[in-house]
Amino acid sequence: MKALRNYLDKIKPNFEEGGKLSMFQSVFDGIETFLFVPSNTSKSGVHIHDAVDSKRTMTVVIIALIPALLFGMYNTGYQHYLAIGQNPGFWMMFIYGFLAVLPKLIVSYGVGLGIEFVVAQWKKEEIQEGFLVSGILIPMIIPVDTPLWMIAIATAFAVVFAKEVFGGLYTNSVAILSDALHDFGDSVSLGVAWYLQKVSGKGPDKYYSYGYKRFSLLGALFISLILLIGSIFVIKECVERILEPQTPNAQGMFALAILGIIVNGIAVLRLKKGTSINERAVTLHMLEDVLGWIAVLIVSIVMMFVDLPILDPLLSIGISLWILSNIYKNLKATLHVFLQQVPQNIDLAGLKTNILQLNQVTSLHDVHLWTLDGESHILTLHIVTEADITMEQQCLIKQQIRELCKEAAIGHVTMEIESCTEECELIEH
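Above: the chain's sequence. Below: its structure in token form.
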């Protein structure tokens, strides 16, 4: 270790102010203070950095977490081989779990510490050591089959949200604080959307005869309510800021806007292919974030040259109102599904007309069309036919109706065929 200490002392002047690598001063400081106990005192107060320095404390916490991490790796392998009915032994189970968890650990630390390093270097401050613990906790609490890109985005949002909150306070910008609140909603959205989307894939059971598809709508409802409450709070703060204007830090707004555009832009690209109401709600919020950060970027540039502090709260109100308008649309679409409205993309009247044009079909009644989740549509109907119809003709009518429904994107059809001589108690429905 003495040789490493001497080497660091030798290259340290290059990273100090005026050195040729001074732009990486925070990065060097982070590595040095992680490897060796700092010898300098705090900038304020009487606390002396020594063996109980915060980085050392975090290292102790990490060491304490390692047994839990190792057991989690073993348990991952154990559960895998238990599910497939094999018992290859302790080490094979551990190796399987190790290989499954290691990429998640790398992504968590890579993304989180990468953002910490960039922000610390930009603000010319010490690198915060808190993520040393967070980086190992994230892989330990997420499901083992979580995609790596989702871990990366969730980690970025968690770190960026904290940076936005403190950055908003640091820059005195309510626009950044409003985006921080929105990003918090989006972080929750990713987790809720992913979990409920998985639950919605479960088939019918004794509790839910149609399956769990409608569970995905709970995610959209939950997300919208979070953003609704948050937007109202932000607008309240903005009104107070308009009445008593305060000058924000335009340079800080500019830097955070660049970071926000990059992180949210990546999220939009990953989620834009979603088709369910839940996925569309999350994607829409991500897109709003990108546009909101672009607006923050533009306003920060303007404020570098013109002293107009009122621009910041006005921008924040504009972003919040835009969010509220889309929350209304998402809530409206979700409630329409819960209230079993006829899907707006299906022409029910036209479908009825096409069915009535089939040979030997005389009338229809008790026709009901609704959707489980905005994508999986269900139709039930009673079909009245001529009296002398044969079984083969009934089968043909059913086949033709199913083809018509398939063209209309209706995947579940329940039909009851009746003769014109029968009486049906549901004929008025």
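Confidence is low (pLDDT under 50) at residues 46-52.
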